Amino acid sequence: MAEISIKQAQEMVDHWIRTYGVRYFNELTNMAILTEEVGEVARIIARTYGEQSFKESDKRKDLADEMADVLWVLLCLANQTGIDLTEAFEKNLRKKTERDKERHIQNEKLNH
């Protein structure tokens, strides 16, 4: 599969929802689902890179798939609320660059 832009991903999710999903879940439901999916990512990270051990049921979890679930629901919420994530991301990157262009470089904690 060719690389997908954020805009294309938003369009693909919208097409899938309208074709197979009947309709979007409401925004509050999707927010709860997003929180659940982020929790699943956190669970894998805590067990893979942290001190927690895996339960038998955790061993079948796939970090990439869970991250894709987070992205899916985020794209749904963007579509539902009329947000162009490409535009939002570009604006956010400019904000971070202006605000933090020297902050991290000057952070002694990061430079050792």
TrEMBL record:
<dbReference type="InterPro" id="IPR047046">
    <property type="entry name" value="YpjD/YvdC"/>
</dbReference>
<dbReference type="InterPro" id="IPR012359">
    <property type="entry name" value="MazG-related_YpjD"/>
</dbReference>
<dbReference type="InterPro" id="IPR004518">
    <property type="entry name" value="MazG-like_dom"/>
</dbReference>
<feature type="domain" description="NTP pyrophosphohydrolase MazG-like">
    <location>
        <begin position="26"/>
        <end position="103"/>
    </location>
</feature>
<dbReference type="Pfam" id="PF03819">
    <property type="entry name" value="MazG"/>
</dbReference>
<protein>
    <submittedName>
        <fullName>Nucleotide pyrophosphohydrolase</fullName>
    </submittedName>
</protein>
